[in-house]
Amino acid sequence: MKLRIRFLDYSGLIFLLLSCSVSFAQESIFGDVSKAELEMTKYSPDPTAAAVVLFNVGENKYDQLNGDMVFTSHKRIKILKKAGLNEADILIPFYNEVQKLYKIKAGVYNLEDGIVTQTLLSTKAFYNEKTSPEMTSRKFSFPNVRVGSVIEYQYTIETYDFTYIPHWTFQEYIPVAYSSFHAEIPSFLQYNLVKKGALGNLVYKFDSKPFYWPGNAFELNFYSWESRDIPAFQTEPYINSKEQQIAGIEFELSKILIESYSQIFSFKDFSPSYEVYSDRLLDKDDFGHKINLPGIFHYLMPADLDKMKTQKEKMLAIYDAVINKLTWNGEESMFAENLPGKFKVNSSYNSAAINFVLLNMLHDAGIAADPIILSTRDKGYIPPNIPIRSRLNYIVVKANIDGQFVMLDGTDPLRPAGMLPFSCMNGKGWKVLHYGEWTDLRTNESFSTIYSTFITLSDSSFTRSEASTVLDGYDALDERKIVHAIGLEQVRKLAYNTSGDRIMQNWEMQNLDSLYKPLLIKETVDYKNAVQRAGNKLIYNPFSAVPPSENPFVQEKRLYPVDFGCPVSVKYNFIIFIPKGYEVTGIPKPENYSLPNGNGRLTLQSEIQDNKIVISCSLQIKKSVFTVAEYPSLKEFFTLFSRKQSEYVVMKKKNS
Amino acid sequence: MLMKRLFTICLIILCTSRICLTQMIQKYEFDEIPKAILPGASIVIRSAQKLFCIKSPSEGYSIVKEAITLVNSSAAEIRYIRLPYDKFESISNIKGNIYDKSGHLIYKIGINDIMDLAGDWAPGIISDNRVKEIAFPVRAYPYTIEYEYKITYHGLLNYPELDFSPETGIAVERRGMQCLVPKSMPFRFKEQGLKFGVDSVTNRKYKIYTWQEENIPAKEIEPWLIVNKLSMPYVKTAPTKFSVGGYDGDLSSWTGFGNWIQIINRDRDVPDAETVATVKKLITGISDKKEIVKRLYEYMQSTTRYVSIQLGIGGWQTAPAFEVRKTGYGDCKALSNYMHTLLRAAGINSYYTLIKAGKYENSDPNFPLNDFTHIILNVPLPNDTIWLECTDQDCPFGYLGTFTDNRYALAVSDNDVKLVHTPGYSKNDNRVENSGSVSIAEDGTAEVSMHLNRTGLLYEEVNSISQLDKKNSIDWLSGKYSNKALKLDTIQFSIVKNRIPEGKMDVKLSLRNFANRGGNLLIYSPCILGKAEYISEKSISGMIALPYIVNDSIVFILPAGYSAEYIPAMVNIKEEFGSYQAGCSIHEGKIVFTRHFELNDGSFDKAKKVLFSQWINVVARLDRRNVVLSPN
Question: Which end of chain A has a smaller Cβ tally under 10 Å, C or N?
Fold first, then answer.
């Protein structure tokens, strides 16, 4: 595949545009390293940083002479600690066939006896590594790098295929003091500019000038971004997509207006809007052409479908056939690569192929159903305005069962109908039909667990707990997945794996194969040391009889939204029988606490009834996504929950 | 025994008539897996066979054939088979099949299922290592993947080894190896703990050694303990005469192998004029040899860094010292050789030392074999022997950590080869001291001011925390303090870089929910740093991974209006495994908690392991005793 094309014939007509009104002022000159940069010992916005990118300046520029896109990058890094030395090992990946890496230049700067020394890397220092059939990596390591050194390198990548032009990343795992990116793109190449991450201080400028092309009048568009003091990227619990949070700009080709180009690239996936994209998808071999294939999958159809009366029965039977007869190959996709055209159960298919089969089978049974395209959680949220192909990666089916909508995905034999993979719990999706429309991906599912425990205390610190745990929604799915992955025998073995303190007497799991019922675990456990004697009192923490729940929000500040994916519900019921001859002098204090706007609620009730204590506690999170501004209240909420879990029951020996 | 002979002969025929092993019609029915090995296994190695054929000291090939049943989805990753190769090894004749549960062939590997990839993708590693990756597609579980390939050796230093102690979750039905050795060539092997052991026959051309073991149980691991790898079942084989990259050697003795190392590295440790001048300048005025070594080691550390370059013979041969001087980087070989050269310029002899690196690794002193993975430097001085880790630019002078301590190694210098043993760290070297104060408020919040000191091998954790940025150190602290909401005020480190290094940390922080309510009482656990965990009383043999001593002394300041209703009494228990003393006392209205825990070195049989677990569980219970405060 050699896609290089030259438009030298037109070179006489080219107007050279030398000035550009929107580029930023900061100039980066190779080799112009100051003494101050070398004397720097700390990066003050982040004094713990091991290294800092002093600047990273780049551009994507259309080259009219060669008819390709030219990317240049110039980066300078300061090493502040020994842990930062590995920043001097560089790897630049590029596509073998459509890109060329050249004009690579690298230098290292040290302060020796007060004088700035420069060492340039010789050509021998650069290695080429064929990383995979498609990719090559240029690798090099800077010489003479120590704490205090400044290193810099610049390079150019020429791209012959406009679909593969390099992206820009502002944020890294070390802080970046300054980053700017400039793009000069003629308007016959239309790109979706996809902004990732959440940089507060990203400045954007735009300008355009006339651009002449034989027979056409186009514009040359100038885009510029810059940002300063970009913090090092860090991960946090409950982030929907790590990759999408790293601040950057992606260039996704949406349209080529010059025929000679678009023919060469056979490029048809223009995506100016979801409505237009919908229609284009309907015209595609591996999407739209897979929607209407009546009768093809008859061999998968449940035999007694005709006898079924309701649409719901039929839907459940078809769903059941799909999840049990087709094996998912683990690949998430929006496009069906191959469909099981004949009876071939000993194969595996990508998610789109399986869901198109499901869609067709529903149609064959007279059930209305449509494909919904979406971004899975690891891709970030679905782009709100423009369908960006690199972020849309999945299709599911929305069926209309007697006026009720049910979301379906046939990739997992452990998931009931109506429940999507957790990776799809990501806001909205787009229903693909002529024009199409937005649709909510929310289902009724949540993370749900109820612990009910009868605890018999004795004054010899021995405790017996008889517990039943009811898992529903994604909690049940997660547990079923574990059982499926390692086998029920191994799960049982692990449950009986006793420690010196906790001895399992009986363990059983119910409803493992009944996907539409909650999963039930019943166990009888003896604890040797759960009750502690403190003088003439006994103290006992009821929550020691249930699995510990970690407080995920111990951080003071939060940088990214908290995304639970769906509502969360945990309930605890304890009935504690107290030992003979003891009276209760303290129980966990009742609590009733709500998050603002009713987005969550924590309650605890406790009372003493004769010889027993009855405690119930409930934690409900009612919405999926909490903003950074809402984080402090969420943190308080979980800190309170953790406090309630740590409260004790206190008993005192009766005076007889 | 008869069956075994038959098996041996069967393979020979297959090999000599050049019929491929796959042509044996085989099925891997799931139901045929012995019930005894199946429980708990996600991966069952149905058969793993290797035919290793030696042609000459530098030429040979292996044919490998393996069949693995993926019992359930947690085995999914194993379907990616990675076959590494480089300039001295090439891979060919890759074949692969998939069989369903009932043993029917359902898929054959095609060209699109095999990828040729770089072996070391990361930046800072430059090598010609490559990988052929077979990506078997997913099928309905359980299914069996079967693959076969040939490795041709162009240079032979390492002969095959078989490890018969699979990881947890992997069961092995059959694993075996057959070595075809030309009659004229000597061949060495060592086996241990095998059910059947070696079987050998001789034909016209070859002496043939066969090993075949069945139904091998998975390894069991337990906290606190490690398993002595040299006591697990294995077969090792090794050459006598060998040749790599045109360099001939003799591995029948450590001296022979050491000599080969010297030959390939000859003249790469000659100090050039600039090095001589630099060294001279650095050591001017220092007369003590140890001080000179220290001065040069610190110079080397501050002017170099680790970059791995493994091209061609460079996997064994060091880069010349002058190259490291020029670039300021190198791998473990190049940096150790450079340090050796600096010392040479100062007139001090040192030994370039080959070692098998990694926690609890070791080499067998009685069976010369190249299983070394790392280089350090041994510097014998008249009154002391100094060990230098040259690849860690942060390592204290003379310190060997868990990566290289307490094991055999091969030291080489100027026509001198010796087997040496690196020093270990005793209980008294590995110490934890925690002291500080905790001021408790009525709402359960605690202001904590704590001083930590860890010495010996335990210094490594503090040292790595000191490298972290603020957020990661808070995460670490939060883990230490039972995952409670935590606000860090200050954190300071000081690292004492001695042979027995010390890592000190001072923190000031506040913890939410430190003390908890029980009616009107306030209850808290005074053992806030490092409670022993309850462990199972399973009987397996092993040895103590890390002997050490802990001393805690923490003062608790009570909230106004509260006094101690109950404090855990001082207890003192001493066993052969170690000793434990802990408890509280009251001084001037404050509660003082002290804890002394000492874990002795030792190795246990199964019966003693049960007693050990019981002792740890007593400690775990005592560590969980609470203080109860009541309002006055």
Answer: C
